[in-house]
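We both want to read discrete structure tokens more fluently, so let's practise on a single case. Would you supply a protein for us yourself, any chain you care to pick? Would you write everything just below, so we can both look at the same thing?
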Amino acid sequence: MRKISTQNLKAGMKLAKAIYSSRGGLIMPAGIELSSEYVDKLNTAGVGEVYIDDPRVADLEIIEPISEVTKLKAIRCLKESYVLLQKGTGPKVDFESLRQVVKEILEDVNRNNPKVVNLITIKSDEDYLFVHAINVTILAVVMARLAGYQQHLMDIALGAYLKDLGMARLDQQVINAPRTFTGDETAMIRRHPEISLEIIQDMTGLSAFTKAIIIQHHERCDGTGYPTGLKESHIHDYAKIVAIADTFAALISDRPHRARIKPHEAIEFMMSAAGFEFDHNFTDCFCKCTVPYPVGTMVQLNSGEKGVVVDLGKGLASRPVVRVFYDSGGQEVKPCYNLNLSDGQYQTKIITEALEE
């Protein structure tokens, strides 16, 4: 299987993985052959990327960090909490359900033990905050393990998952506006860490570590963050970890006011901010569990050859194993062949672009 943008789907392709709505409803089953009508349906549903069967990479298996069941449950639980918070009346948020979902996310991550995190594709603006929360939780947990913080993974996961609850109490029309925010709107949105902290005060048994993450996840080591402009040692380590995970997950997601950037571009940005906005040591942990060209990504080489990343290899993350589908002239090659870009014989070949086709 391989990943492809829904905008580049063609009739006749087959889905390798089933697609579900955030409510758990089946949008389209695995194995179905796509017609032009089905392609239109996926685009209308806001599905950004899908996995398709491709005989050229039939041996390729892409492991997700959490199960589909856990993912859908986590989206649904957080969405229900947002609805209650937006109403401001009626039943209180079910914090125990939220805690249980976080526990299941943590159990899945520990069971699957991903060395590299494949973040979940955000299917629509409506689901952004919920899928984003899951992505940040997964990445923060893997980073925290690498940093040696196994004893407080649940506290870190809870902080990552609950940190944006305050967004539910803000003007949703502003949050989802397809334009740059005004100064007043930016100031409003920057209140969400404090509002989130107020909301979770009723949640019994929440540690000081989790609360620090919630209030500090937008602080920056150079003092340019918010809400209080803390610097360096005044920011808790766990909040520094979540800040990195939060920023990266946001950069690679489409938002109404800006388009996403590709993973390799986002990683470059994160590395450029290391030692300034972000803690240098935790940025190193981030770089160890993220890769610029995840397995299943179509890429183009400087030679003009195109193919799919089939293995991350054991060398530099920017030099994986690529299975070449098309030669430098754009002609399909049969049979396909693998290029391990870490091998010395291919040292002049580099990936120049990640493709969505």
